[in-house]
Amino acid sequence: MNIRICLTLTLALGEGAIVTPPASAQALTLSEAIARAQERGPQARAARAARESGRYRHRAYRSGLLPQLSLVGTVPSYNKSIISVLRDDGSTEFVPQQQTDASMRVTLSQKIPLTGGDLFVSSSLARLRVSGPTAYQSWSTTPVSVGLRQDILRPNTAAWIGREDAVRAELDERAYLEAMEDVALQTATLFFDVYAARVGLENAVTNAAVNDTLYRLNTGRFEVGKIGENDLLQSELALLRSRTALESARLEHERATDALRLALDLAPGTPVEVTVTGEVPEFEADTARAVAEALKNRAAVTAVALDEIQARQSVAEARLRSGPGATVEASYGLNATAPGATLAYQNLLEARRFTLSVQVPLWQWGAHQEGVQAAEADRERVTNLSAATLRQVAHDARFAALELAQARRNVLLVAKSDSVAAKRFEVAYNRYVIGRITIDNLYIAQAEKDQALLQYVQALRGYWAALYGLRRATLFDFAVGRPIRGGS
After folding, report:
1. To bridge 386 with a disulfide, which of 304, 375, 445, 468 should be the other Cys (CB 3.0-4.6 Å)?
2. What kind and span of H or E run contains 37?
C-alpha cells in the first residue's frame, strides 16, 4: 500500500500532496494505542472500578464468615413519672418515682455455613436504680453465656449465598476482562478510523492536484483545438468534485483524530499520528479450540452458572420456607444479681434456656404446592435460556475464528488489487498525457484506483477488528496461545 500511495503522489507533479503530520506528533502503533486506552481511557477506568467494587463485596462477604464481635448497650435509660403503688390495706396510692437503668452486652457470634445456624458467646452487665418510696439498686451480671440458634427444615440461606458469592467473584473478574477487550476493540476501530481518514485525505490531496494538472493540460489542448469543449467541461467538473472531496476528507480526518484523542484521554489538540503496516500476524485460530476456550472463559458462561444456582435456591426455598419447620434455641451460662457491682460476680448461678419452636401450616389452599411449581417452572426457564446462551457463545466463537481467517485472506487479495489499480492508473495517466486514451478511460482508472485503496484500508480494519473480536469472544490470545489475564 505504501508503494501505491507513492505512485499516486508522484502524479501530483510537485503539488505537495503528502499530508505531513505536525513535527511534535509521535508515531502511535495500534498496540500502543490499545495499551494507553486500557490504562487511561474512561471505559477502562470504569471497568477497573467495577472490578474493585466486586472484589470489595467478595471480601466483605468473606469477612462476614469470620467471628463477629459486637457491643450493644443502653447508657443510660432515665424515666421520671408518677406510678400507682398498692398499699397493704388494698388501696392504691400514686407516688412519684425516678428510675435509671443501664446495660451493656458484648457478643462474639459465628455463622455456621454448613447448617445456617448461629453460635454465640456473650457477657453482659446491667444496673437498675429506683428512687422514691421504694428506692433500691440492683446489679445483674452474666459473665459468660454460650448459645445456639438453629432452624430445622428451613432453607440454608448462608450456604446458598456462599455458592453465589464464589461464582459472582469469578463473574466480576471475567466481566472485567471482557470490558478491557471491548476497549481494545473500540480503540482498534477508532485507530483505523484515523488511518482511513488520513489515507483518504492523502488520496484526496493527490486527486485534487492531478485533476488540477489535467484541467490545465486540457485547457491548453482546447485552445489549440485538440479536444472538444465537452472534454474540457468534464475535466473541470472532475476538478471541482475533487476539491469538494478534499474539504470533506479534511473534516473527516479531524473528526476521527479527535475521537481517538477522547478514547486515549489525550488533551484537545494533542498531535496524533497513527502508524500502520500492511503486515498481519501469521497464526491460525482453530474453531474447535475457539469454542472450547469460549465455553471455559466467557463471562456469559459464568452468568449461566450463577442463574442456575439462583434457580435451584428458589426451588429449595419454595419447598422448605412455607412447609413444616422448627427453630431450636439453647443457651447455657452463669449469672448473678446483687446490690453492688462487685458482689454481682460472686455466688454465680447456672442460667439455662432451651426453646423449640414449631411451625406447622395446617391449610394453605395449595399455596405451598403452587409456589414450588412456580419455582420449578422458573428453573426450567433458566435451564432453557442457559442452554441457548451456551450455544450462542459457541456459535460466536466459531464464527469469530472463521472471520479472522477470512479477513486475513481478504487483506492479501485486496493488497494485490490495490497495487494493480495503482499501476493501472499510472499507466492510464501517462497514456492520456501523450494522447493515447480518452479522458473517460482515465477517470475510470482513477475511480478504480480510489475504490481499490478504500477496499484495502477496509480490509486492514476488518482484519484487526476480527482479531480483537475473536479475543473478546474467547478471552484467549491465539497469537501467544494462552488465556487473557487481567493482572492485579
Report:
1. 304
2. helix 30-40
Cα–Cα distance measured from residue 10 to residue 76, given in angstroms and rounded to the nearest whole number = 94
Reading phi first (left if > 0) and then psi (alpha if -120 to 50, else beta), residue 366 is in left
Per-residue confidence in pLDDT tens, the chain, 488 aa:
443 433 333 333 333 344 455 545 668 899 999 999 999 999 999 999 999 999 999 999 999 889 999 999 988 888 888 877 777 777 887 878 788 899 999 999 999 988 889 999 999 999 988 887 677 889 999 999 999 999 999 999 889 999 999 999 999 999 999 999 999 999 999 999 999 999 999 999 999 999 999 899 989 988 888 888 898 898 899 999 999 999 999 999 999 999 999 999 999 988 989 998 878 888 888 999 999 999 999 999 999 999 999 999 999 999 988 889 999 999 999 999 988 888 888 888 999 999 999 999 998 888 889 999 999 999 999 999 999 999 999 999 999 999 999 999 999 999 999 899 999 989 998 998 888 888 888 889 988 998 999 999 999 999 999 999 999 999 999 999 999 987 65
Residue 352: strand pairing partners? 332
Residues 76 and 79: their CA atoms lie apart, in Å, by: 10
DSSP 265-313: TPPTT---EE---S--------HHHHHHHHHHH-HHHHHHHHHHHHHHH
Three-state SS at 33: helix
Q: Say how far apart CA 97 and CA 80 lie, in whole Å.
A: 6
Locus of grid cell 428458589: 314
Q: For residues 395 and 290, give the distance between their C-alpha atoms in angstroms, rounded to a whole number.
A: 10
Whether 402 contacts 291, CB under 8 Å: no
Q: What is the 3-state secondary structure (H, E, C) of 360-427?
A: CCCCCCCHHHHHHHHHHHHHHHHHHHHHHHHHHHHHHHHHHHHHHHHHHHHHHHHHHHHHHHHHHHHH
Strands 273-274 and 27-28: parallel
Q: Residue 284 and residue 292: Cα distance in Å, rounded?
A: 15
Cα-atom radius of gyration of the chain, to the nearest Å? 40
DSSP letter (8 states) at residue 40: H
Write the secondary structure of 255-277 as one string of H (helix), E (strand) and C (coil): HHHHHHHHHHCCCCCCCCEECCC
> Are the C-beta atoms of residues 195 and 260 closer than 8 Å to each other?
no
Rounded CA separation 166/44 (Å): 24
363 alpha carbon, distance to own chain's centre: 48
Asked whether the beta carbons of 95 and 133 are under 8 A apart, the reply is yes
Residue type for position 439: I
Measured CA to CA in angstroms, residue 106 lies from 68, 70, 331 at distances of: 11, 6, 15
